[in-house]
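Hey, I was hoping to borrow your eyes for a little while. I'm sending you its amino acid sequence along with the backbone structure tokens. Take your time with it, there's no hurry, and the full record follows here.
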Amino acid sequence: QVQPVESGGGLVQTGGSLRLSCVASGRTFSSSDMAWFRQAPGKEREFVAAITWIHTPKYASSVKGRFTISRDNAKNMVYLQMNSLKPEDTAVYYCNTNPPTRPWGQGTQVTVSS
């Protein structure tokens, strides 16, 4: 299994927005449920959002109403639109299947300044 490759992170102020992208190559992508996870310094990796292969989304309560997950099966891409960012959203963000079955990628750093 090939590890996903995440991008799109950066430094933003509180209330700002970012759009993360993930490319997950492989013939099974279009039939796989995918998800975003994040890990803040000193904390366990946690679930952020998921999307089924038929595009049904699910969100952690901490991001519901602010984040939107989407996918483009033709491009093997998963996206995470993050609005109204808060300092507590600061973390390294990863994508993987849901549940995770692929090697973890490098992730993309999101830093929200207060």
The chain has a mean pLDDT of 95.
